[in-house]
Write a structure and sequence with these properties.
Blueprint: H1 3-7, H2 9-14, E1 27-29, E2 41-46, H3 58-71, E3 76-82, H4 86-97, E4 101-107, H5 113-123, E5 128-132, H6 135-151, E6 158-160, H7 171-185, E7 194-199, H8 203-215, E8 220-225, H9 234-251, E9 265-268, H10 281-294, H11 303-315, E10 323-328, H12 353-356, H13 361-364
Parallel strand pairs: 2-10, 3-4, 3-6, 4-5, 7-8, 7-10, 8-9
Antiparallel strand pairs: 1-2
Helix pairs in contact: 3-4, 3-7, 4-5, 7-8, 8-9, 10-11
Amino acid sequence: MIPLFERYPLLGDTLSFTALGSYPTPVLDGSKLDVSRHCAGITIKHDGVSGTPYGGNKVRKLEFLLGAAQAGGKTSVLTFGGAGSNHALATAIYAQKLGLTPHSLLIRQPNSYAVRNNLLRSLETNAKLQHFESMPGLKAGAILAMTSFLVRGESLPYLIMPGGSSPVGLLGYVNAAFELHDQVQAGLLRAPDVIYIACGTLGSCVGLALGCNILGLKTKICAVAVTDAGFSSVSKARKLFDCANTLLCNADNSIPALRFEECALELRHDFFGTEYGLYTQAGMKAKQRLEDATGLKIEGCYTGKCVAALLEDLRLGRLAGQQVLFWNTYDARGGSHSTAHLDYHRLPEKFHGYFESDVQPLDRA
């Protein structure tokens, strides 16, 4: 039983859940990131190994989302993301594993080797992919896609929001906060004063903030945004927090009703760069520094920018005397998964350009 359900058994009776991952995920030593002792200590929560054959932060969310899809008798799921979306790939992998047909509506993003790899891996899931050039186009495509199900006389798919970030999806990271608390209680790490986590669609960071609040912890969540302020905004974070808290309270009235203003969530946009999916010098340097110090491999779109913020705060003395935790959200299972045998021509034609044009400059270095 997951820690959240152990603490609040009524939730297990009322919330849909399907086990996909391997938990608890390990805690790693990150002290070599801070050889000059700018803080009291650094540890790493390694969600990269949260599941097989694909890890990362999406697995926790999908346990609740795909559980809800199954409980609702759905036979397919439909989600959204960038062309190389980790979320869309994870959804397709685990949906197929459960016998659900995955559909992904994807929007253009800067090219990278990671984009190519995720698109090729999607071929193995038989995901139904569509490519769009703009957000208005994607929204129109979503309406058309849903209409087409009705025209064919098929049941509508279960809708999964970008990044799996909905009140249901973020429960995976409410549970993650409880898991971390159990590891602290077991003496596997000291209680963190601040957690650094990459933030795209807000679900993981808001879930952690809500979970910590329910537990009465004062841990600060430093969410390093990789999307612009209009997409990952405080107002959206508040709405997610409130809706998820209400969902939990309705399922078990012993869970406290909380105020978003009381949670220690800091939303940072200073390491975003200029465009979603576009790597930055700081992020790529941080990515390499983490690998050199710990052997842990991350990437430039999300986690590299998060580590860059952590390193900058260390350098500026902002973390003096604090226990710091970096929450790695990047899949660590797919590195050994070869896509060399897969032919990109099997993808819809609109995706071929990612293989026929060069990747972005910082990915070529």
